[in-house]
């Protein structure tokens, strides 16, 4: 339940359900403000805090946080450019009883922690200039910055900033449930660490969830290489990318890797079996559990022929890179497959399927999954997984060092390896995307794609 991701309308409905069940808005605000206040108290370590309170219930949370801090002896000042506009916020302000600076003050303090409670999910338009300037000036005068629910100026459902030059934060504390902006770029990049305060919201059916840490099993005691999963990687014109995918796949669980080579690869690792045969023939081996095609495939006629052979074999398949650019809707294309597009490949697939390509990334991925029947791993800084049945998983922010050439080949190799193990596209996509992020966390800074691939085994080990 705490992994669900809600729109503003769904959040309001969830809150209404709580209110209908007998909890008051004031009680919810108290719970949210105390939870957030505890985080701010820890960060402030007794040093001064400035809280910027807006006119709505996000501002109300701010007054509760300020009271929580003042009760614990923290020097706290509230900045309230606008009076409270809701009964709950007015009550929270009345209960605070400390220093409140009204309007837009000329002089602003320097201090340790700035808490942004100007606007939350009720933001409906860009911040006016005076409020924007106050927000920016207060943020700049404090060492640590905390956004409550959302950074002010960010649209909750889209993750789009409605103003330019908004502050960045060290911590964003979401209240009640995650919102889309917590996972969608560019907003997610502004938020720092993310924490969630539980205010008792129930499960909302059919909504997206945050991708969760999977629990993997070691091979069965009597396992052998075929039962663990034979993955066939169909290479093409540029063998390096397929070798890189194979290197990652080797560490993600499959028991046996076979490269159906196109161009002759150099430096074949000893543990990779290379087959120089037509993919159509090579894939007739009934022991092949899954196929990967795309990294280094090329986009010429030979590539199309190789892709058509893979489609004909009807095996669970990961379709990546060049294969996504030459793909067209056809019998056998889509169901049982995983497509792993980045933004450019997503747009190409939308053209291929005649989709308009409008809306949020998550909506575009869901539409593509429904149209194609494939599981879509829409990768990037805000990766997500969409299923043809409408299911949606949003990945937590991963290491920004993943923005390195070959990172996508590694991801495709990991997911394909999991597909060979699990034989289930949805499970493989979820496990693979998590493993990719976990491997990056272990690879540290400035890693190469090879370095990333070599961290997949320890990442997998941590999930057993
Ligand atoms: N409900 C609950 O049970 C709980 C809710 N909680 C908290 O409530 C928050 C949502 O509260 P909220 O709906 O009051 O929205 P919020 O973001 O504070 O401000 C809306 C006000 O701002 C105004 N306004 C909007 N944009 C503007 C702009 N650019 N410039 C100027 N004004 C602008 C808008 O006015 P209007 O658009 O009508 O003109 C309205 O008056 C949520 O994020 C969470 O923190 C928690 O306490 C848990 C319990
Ligand atoms: K805020």
Molecular structure report:
The protein is an alpha/beta fold and 464 residues long. The chain has two domains: 5-208, Rossmann fold; 225-461, UDP-N-acetylmuramoyl-L-alanine:D-glutamate ligase (3-Layer(aba) Sandwich). Helix content is 38%, strand content 17%. The protein contains 16 helices and 19 strands. The longest helix is centred in the first third of the chain and has 20 residues, at 25-44. It binds ligand NPW and potassium ion. Residues 15, 25, 28-29, 32, 54-61, 85-86, 119-128, 148-149, 175-176, 199 line the site of ligand NPW. Homotetramer. Residues 208-463 form the YjeF C-terminal domain. One of its GO terms (molecular function) is metal ion binding. (6S)-NADPHX binds at residues 57-61, 120-126, 149, 241, 296, 342, 409.
Secondary structure elements and pairings:
Layout: E1 5-6, H1 8-20, H2 25-44, E2 49-53, H3 57-71, E3 76-80, H4 87-96, E4 100-102, E5 111-117, H5 129-140, E6 142-148, E7 171-175, E8 178-179, E9 193-197, E10 209-210, H6 225-228, E11 230-234, H7 239-249, E12 256-260, E13 273-275, H8 279-282, E14 288-293, H9 301-313, E15 317-319, H10 321-326, E16 337-339, H11 343-352, H12 361-372, E17 375-378, E18 384-386, E19 392-394, H13 407-422, H14 425-443, H15 449-453, H16 456-461
Helix pairs in contact: 2-3, 2-4, 3-4, 7-13, 13-14
This protein binds ligand NPW and potassium ion (K).
Ligand NPW is lined by residues 15, 25, 28-29, 32, 54-61, 85-86, 119-128, 148-149, 175-176, 199.
